[in-house]
Amino acid sequence: MASNTGTMANLPSGVGICTTIPDILYLPELVFGGLVWILVACTLVVPQNPQGWVMFVSVFCFVMTFIWMVVFACGSHHNKASWAAADFLYHGIAAFFYLSASVALAKVTLDLSGKQGNSTTTQLRNYKLDISAVVFSYVATLLYFVHTILSAIRWKSF
Questions:
Q1: pLDDT tens digits, 57-80
Q2: Are the C-beta atoms of residues 108 and 45 closer than 8 Å to each other?
Q3: DSSP label of 17
Q4: Cα(9)–Cα(78) distance, integer angstroms
């Protein structure tokens, strides 16, 4: 039986997370997730329930991705295969959460588009911010999905 100790170097630490695939995706995930968080926070929250879910997902994923990145950067993962599986699991959950939040945000934004005929400047501004948030939310979803696929490949290589 072959030993898999030689493949444990697949999990980088330190600056290596900025140069390896899929770990290089941490920074764009943080940037686009942060933009979603900021843009939704800048708009009028109507209706509250879908917008609240979008805020929860964006804040949760931003904080958890930052913590996950710090764990890998500090080398706290000790190059174990279980960390590769956890990386795959976290990014899969984050991709699913972001997809559900993106759909909810797009629905709210589409509902607002029919009300733009007699809108004020503030309503138009909120609508444009919501459109930007939808675009960035789908970009974040794509980044998390790609990270999930690449993490699964890395996990299976152990």
A1: 999 999 999 998 888 888 776 656
A2: no
A3: G
A4: 10
